[in-house]
Amino acid sequence: MSDQAQELRRLREKLSNALYSHSNRQPFKNKLSISFAGGKGGTGKTALSVNIAISFARKGIKTVLLDADVGLANANIILGVKPKKNWADFLYNKASFEDILYFYDNDLILIPGASGISDAANLPSYKQEELFLSLDTLESHTDVLIIDVGAGIQENIINFSIASNNIVVVTNPDPTALTDAYSFIKVISNKLYNHKVYLLINMARTFEEVKRIYELFVPMVKSRLNVDLEILGSISYSEEMVLSVKQSKPLVINYPRSEASRQIEIITTKLLGNLYRQNQVLNAKQEGYVKKANSTKTYVTDDARSVDAGNKDSFVSRFCKFFGLKK
Ligand SMILES: Nc1ncnc2c1ncn2[C@@H]1O[C@H](COP(=O)(O)OP(=O)(O)OP(=O)(O)O)[C@@H](O)[C@H]1O
Ligand SMILES: [Mg+2]
Known about the structure:
CATH class: Alpha Beta
Distance between the termini: 45 Å
CATH topology: Rossmann fold
Order of helices and strands: HEHEHHEEHEHEHEHEHHHHHH
CATH architecture: 3-Layer(aba) Sandwich
Radius of gyration: 19 Å
Number of strands: 8
Strand order of the largest sheet: 3-4-2-5-1-6-7-8
Shape: globular
Largest sheet: 8 strands, mixed
Bound molecules: adenosine-5'-triphosphate, magnesium ion
Structural class: alpha/beta
Oligomer: single chain
Strand content: 5-15%
């Protein structure tokens, strides 16, 4: 690259960072959005966001799941699908935005994570902004945006976390995870404006562990960081979850009657209740959702999905079904 081109690129990035880093840019700002985040790696952010996204979709709620992990994206693996493109292809390899939408189900779109970028530090703010702007084009056809955020506290990770108006901090009961959750909440605490911050305890083994977090950790965050942290609930350590991840089958489909699946259903219902209160648009649809939630839904099988991967017509028909369009 010539010196002049490099200088131009540097200036463009500087300008864009100045414009966007403090803007707390939020796609879906008129709808509902939830980020699953938290400083520590491996707490279950992806496993829970995928299963909660499926639970939303099963209630007939049009859901977009953005795998925002940079470098180590894996929501597609937990979902058990093999999308051909991801959002790095859109930002860097001339793929269209439509190309990176993976229609998992009539009510769930996955936007696969960026496996082509080595780490979050290599994603300039103006590129992140480009992605947010494109997400906005889905807003009027969709109900909920779920963002599965990677581990860490780098600027881009924080930007993805606060891009939603509901931030779910996923932690384990271990002291190391709680320390990282605390640091994460501290970093976001001075960037919050219209956000609601929840704590979700994953892989809990005993009631005592959860109780200690309720009694000690939450009051400490509230008093020291002045963040109105609300407990969303807890999910037990689950062998069925471990197996489901290994088998690339979402827990709520693989083991719908397991304790963890039931807890995920409770969390989804609780989130929905809170989201309804936040957004009048959903209120109008609530009755319909409840009806749908009580009816059984048929899911596309893995075989159907792999056949579908190379089938253009099928993509179009899924596109139309998701957006309620006639072919
Ligand atoms: N409730 C649970 N019980 C047992 N194991 C779990 C549970 N939730 C998640 N796991 C396991 O934890 C591992 C890490 O989960 P996951 O990839 O969702 O974490 P993550 O927070 O997204 O990690 P990263 O920060 O790297 O993105 C998975 O192998 C999964 O099987
Ligand atoms: Mg993850």
